[in-house]
Design goal:
635 residues, 56% helix
């Protein structure tokens, strides 16, 4: 194992080494019970193979697996309950379009292509709905705490469990693990990639480097800001190098220390080192390019077109397919990194806009990630100033996270809380160190210091209570409320899905237009040439309705003028199951919709109210219903 002294835990912090016979003791230093003490033997039978495998795991690993199980529970509970956000609806529509048409190309406006490829198979397997829409992100978020085990050579058992705890249960991370956006995916894959690099350093195994390259590639396929992670890593590495080379005492300079380490290490001959490194660089490039090409390359259902599978079966088309892919990627990255977006806070200068975005990010952190952030500060301070040999992984992730808090507001164009995910995932590591420090102080003072014990218990209860309350209110009870700092403006305030549930029952058997969109606010002056259907709808004002229309396999159409819509409805030239219009047009449309129920719902967190007219009994002849005998509004 090749590690610097500054990365080595002190003897009392590291897990006990394996015994000579290969049996791993548990984290208390005691040997595990023999077969005679197992649960299976107590019940009169041999333990199952599953039980034996579980018992062979270290106590730390078992604790982390338990946290992962809880992470799955909090992410899967009511996963489909929240109505889809604007962004969720847009990306979901394109994923469903990929499934239905077989056509795909990288569209930078919806970020990386990974989720479209994955959800294509998810929708095919269990159908399109709000649960399946978010399933992939929820699974990745639930599995992310396993990455804490990658740092077990540098963290003690309590610290590893602390890292897993914050990755699994920090309310802000849970909220965006239940949200169909790629931000958490990119952060998770980058964090795992860093952990694999650490494992490669620990074990001097290049296979971990190859795996890290694969996860970096996945991060790039998830979202374009993966490039920012690489830049942040360069900066964090520079700080670590400065820390290692700055010598405060002794006769040796920093350069002398490096030369000494080089001579003491078992470095292969220069020729072997060069050709070996060159080979692994080539392998890494093949892995990275292969993964990114697979996800970014276009798919064309027409056998005569140029797409990924056509190029695989006909290698002469490969250069053209690669060229088209590269052009798409260059266009997308130029857009996101070219300063073409507007300031979401709508300030007169970049400084005011930055402060506005930063303020909103800090408010979200204060509401739902204060425990993680505070413990990260504690862990960093204790590591940087409280240890003779600070551990590089703790300092690196702290630099990574704190810089991300300050830096990401510079690169955003709309007010949102999800940018905090980029900082909180790496900060979970120093936060795990911080909470393990508090836990250790409590445990040590249990029989020696009543005051210290009381203080540490109070701190832990405060952290647990804060996270529980924040989880309950931010994630479950108020997931669309304007008062919730995690809720972005394009999140519908109300659940309008009951008004559209008639499509689930009758769209397949209904002839003609199933959903009619009315009003110049929701209808374009001229239909789009292609893209999200109905082509006549205004994407900025109507999404996520198009996602639901597509998920119900319904037919949508538009009439811009409400008066013309009323005439068409009264004449029977259009007979939709659902009519949607701005709420200001409810009185004008209601007389033309006898037998329909109506409900008003907000399509955004505030304002943007729409009226939904819907009929739960579309098989009857509505033209014979007295127009004055409307059912009560609402359900």
């Amino acid at each position: 194992m090749r590690r610097s002294d500054s990365d080595s835990p002190t003897p009392d912090e590291s897990d006990p080494p394996d015994e000579a016979d290969g049996t791993a003791p548990d984290d208390t230093g005691e040997s595990p019970p023999d077969d005679g003490d197992t649960t299976g033997s107590q019940n009169g039978g041999a333990p199952s193979e599953y039980t034996q495998r579980f018992e062979r795991l270290s106590q730390t690993t078992r604790h982390v697996l338990g946290i992962v199980a809880v992470g799955f529970l909090v992410r899967f509970a009511l996963l489909g309950a929240r109505v889809a956000h604007f962004d969720e609806g847009r990306v979901g529509w394109w994923a469903l379009h990929f499934l239905d048409s077989g056509q795909f190309e990288y569209r930078y406006i919806i970020h990386g292509p990974l989720v479209q490829h994955v959800n294509k198979f998810v929708f095919a397997a269990i159908g399109p709905n709000d649960f399946s829409l978010r399933l992939f992100v929820a699974v990745v978020g639930a599995l992310l705490p396993l990455s804490a085990l990658l740092f077990r050579e540098h963290l003690n058992s309590d610290e590893v469990v602390g890292v897993a705890f914050f990755l699994a249960l920090s309310p802000l991370l849970v909220y965006y693990s239940r949200f169909f956006r790629s931000t958490l995916l990119a952060a998770a894959f980058a964090f795992v990639a860093f952990g694999l690099v650490v494992r490669a350093y620990d074990e001097w195994e290049v296979r971990y480097v190859h795996a890290a390259v694969a996860f970096i590639a996945l991060a790039f396929t998830a979202k374009e800001n993966a490039a920012v992670y690489l830049l942040v890593w360069v900066g964090a590495t520079a700080l670590l190098v400065d820390h290692l080379l700055f010598r405060t005492g002794g006769e040796d300079s920093g350069v002398d220390w490096v030369i000494e380490k080089w001579h003491d290490s078992d470095i292969p001959p220069k020729e072997d080192l060069f050709f070996g490194a060159l080979w692994h660089v080539v392998v890494g490039l093949v892995i990275f390019c292969g993964i990114t090409l697979y996800f970014y390359a276009p798919r064309e259902p027409n056998a005569a077109a140029v797409g990924f599978w056509q190029a695989i079966t006909n290698p002469t088309l490969f250069p053209e397919m690669v060229g088209r892919t590269i052009d798409d990627v260059i266009e997308g990255y130029s857009y996101w990194f070219g300063g073409t977006t507007d300031a979401g806070c709508r300030k007169e200068n970049v400084i005011d806009a930055y402060l506005c975005f930063l303020g909103q990010e800090l408010q979200a952190i204060g509401q739902s990630a204060l425990a993680l952030t505070a413990m990260a500060v504690v862990g960093f301070v204790a590591e940087r100033y409280g240890r003779a040999n600070a551990r590089n992984v703790v300092l690196f992730t702290a630099y990574w996270g704190f810089v991300s808090i300050l830096g990401y507001p510079l690169g955003t164009d709309i007010a949102n809380a999800w940018i905090a995910v980029n900082a909180l995932v790496p900060l979970a590591l120093p936060a795990g160190v911080g909470i393990a420090l508090v836990w250790g102080r409590m445990r040590d003072s249990l029989h020696t210091g009543s005051v210290r014990f009381g203080i540490t218990v109070f701190v832990l209860l405060l952290i647990g209570g804060y996270m529980a309350v924040s989880m309950g209110t931010s994630v479950y009870t108020n997931p669309t409320s304007e008062e919730n700092e995690l809720v972005q403006y394009a999140q519908p305030a109300d659940d309008f899905r009951p008004a559209m549930s008639v499509l689930d029952d009758h769209a397949a058997s209904h002839d003609g237009t199933d959903v009619l969109i009315v009003g110049s606010t929701y209808v374009r002056d001229s239909p789009r040439a292609g893209g999200i259907t109905p082509l006549c709808t205004s994407i900025s004002d109507v999404l996520p309705l198009q996602w639901y229309i597509e998920a119900y396999d319904a037919e949508g159409d538009c009439i811009a003028d409400p008066q013309n819509a009323s005439l068409s409805l009264q004449r029977g030239s259009v007979d939709p199951l659902v009519v949607i219009a701005p709420s200001s047009q409810e009185d004008q449309l209601a007389p033309a919709l006898p037998g329909y129920e109506s409900a008003v719902h907000g399509l955004r967190t505030y304002g943007s109210e729409a009226v939904f007219f819907y009929d739960q009994t579309p098989e009857r002849d509505r033209r014979n219903v007295n127009t004055t005998a409307l059912r009560p509004a609402g359900r």
